[in-house]
Amino acid sequence: MMKLSVIFKLFIYALIFFSFIWPETGNAIPAFARKYKISCNTCHTVFPRLKAYGDEFAGNGFIIKEKENERDYVTAGDDLLWLNKDFPVAARIDLIAAHEQGQKVENDLRIPWGLKLLSGGTLYKNIGYYFYFYMQEHGKIAGVEDAYIHFDNIFNTNLDVMVGQFQICDPLMKRELRLTYEDYMIYKTKIGNSTINLAYDRGLILAYGIEKSGTDIVAMIVNGNGIPEEVDGKLDQDNHKNIGLRVNQSIADFLSIGGFYYFGKENSPDTSLTNQVTYYGPDIILSAGPFELTAQYLMREDDNPYFTGSASKIKTEGYVAELVFSPDIERSRYCITGLYNLVDSEYYKYETATLSYTYQLARNLRLLTEYTRDLNEEKNRFVLGVISAF
Q1: Which has the closest alpha carbon to 298: 277, 268, 320, 269?
Q2: Measuring CA to CA, which residue among 363, 367, 387 is closest to residue 29?
Q3: Which of 87, 94, 163, 235 is most deeply packed, by most CB within 10 A?
């Protein structure tokens, strides 16, 4: 009689095979595509990966200005009213099967691994909004993650302002748009008892683009303690506000380089001790035909992450390098992704190499096959996924 692990692997191999021969099906249309009567591939290649036009659409507050018509809104004769006739809603579901060596439970059907409701669109002319509610994330209700209002081209300039809840790393590498199951780990990592990382936080973003030089500047101010539930009616655990700055310079159509700086402080919830946190480092985006390389280096410095009387500084290095091969570029039905992660700190080390294959079964349905090697623990993980938005 076959062992369960052998059957599980055969099941994965069979689904990988069928992902190559399955016929194309009709396209389903999520919220933005429904509203503007356009295909999902107007903004996406293999979703959720964005084309340049998709980046522009998001940067305009999820508004296609040339397609905005008063007849599509409820105005009631009031120039200051601009309500959507239909409330735009979409959903996303992630179904994951995983085999992880060295775990107590090696074979796990994580179905669903994630289920979210999303909405976004126009509030008023150059003002948009976006949010999603995680109905289930990793087996539990996560609640609201992204949730913000986007003011586009304020005073008819290239200044945009976003107010709400977002990921600090969004100007660097957008975790929500990655093709892999494996994450960008340096952005999620917290050191010691610190609550600071570069994932979700509440605050304000200002973005300004200098068209002549191809320079993009993003500044932000955030609470600095993530998105915990309120305590004593407060969503921030201390009086400190943290700041971030990212500058990106386009060198040519195929190359851009950037630099990121973040500075913040946090108080221990139990004592008056303070930890000071600094991030800094460069990033690069290089596109060459069907290949796109995105790489990030970050140095994180904490001066008292354990909130002890005898403070000890801890430095943490982080690397993320992602290479995506899309054979037909924007028209590709499949992508191959290579991803390298390294987080190296005094008390913690994480190092993985990932190879991932994504096949677009329909515009809003893709299959995922992924292998990750834990270079630190010398263990393997195999993942098969079905991801859909509708």
Answers
A1: 320
A2: 363
A3: 94
Is the separation of the CB atoms in 15 and 103 below 8 Å? no
Tokens 């126009």 identify what position?
122
Domain of 165? 4-389
Contacts of 305 (CB under 8 A, 6+ apart): 191, 192, 193, 194, 275, 277, 314
Q: What angle do CA 169, 170, 173 make, to 5 degrees?
A: 75
SS3 267: strand
261 within 8 A of 277, measured Cβ to Cβ:
no
- pLDDT tens for each residue of 14-29: 444 443 333 333 333 3
Q: What letter represents residue 361's amino acid?
A: L
Q: Mean of the pLDDT values across residues 178-204?
A: 96
CB under 8 Å to 248, separation ≥6 — which residues? 171, 215, 216, 217, 218, 256, 257, 258, 283
How do residues 104-131 score in pLDDT, each as one tens digit? 999 999 999 999 999 988 888 889 999 9
**Number of independent structural domains in the chain:** 1
Per-residue pLDDT band at 51 (split at 50, 70, 90): low
Residues 219, 202: Cα–Cα separation, whole Å: 14
- Return the CATH number at 217: 2.40.160.10
And the tokens for 314?
Answer: 């801890």
Partners of 337 in beta bridges:
324, 356
Nearby residues of 331 by Cβ (< 8 Å), 6 or more positions away? 41, 45
Q: What is the distance between the terminal CA atoms of the chain, rounded to a whole angstrom? A: 41
| Of the candidates 51, 181, 190, 43, the residue with the CA atom closest to the CA atom of residue 120 | 43
Strands 274-288 and 255-267: antiparallel
Side chain identity at 359, as an amino acid letter?
Y
Tell me if 221 sits within 8 A of 241, measured CB to CB. Answer: yes
Q: Which amino acid is at 300?
A: R
Question: What mean pLDDT value characterizes the chain?
Answer: 86
Contact 144, 118 (CB under 8 A): no
CA–CA separation, 46 and 330 (whole Å): 8
Q: CA 305 to CA 190: how far, in whole Å?
A: 9
What's the helix, strand, coil split of the chain in %, to 5?
Answer: 15, 50, 35
Spatial separation of the C-alpha atoms in residues 383 and 263, rounded to whole Å: 37
For 123, residues 6+ apart whose C-beta sits below 8 A from its C-beta are 82, 129, 149
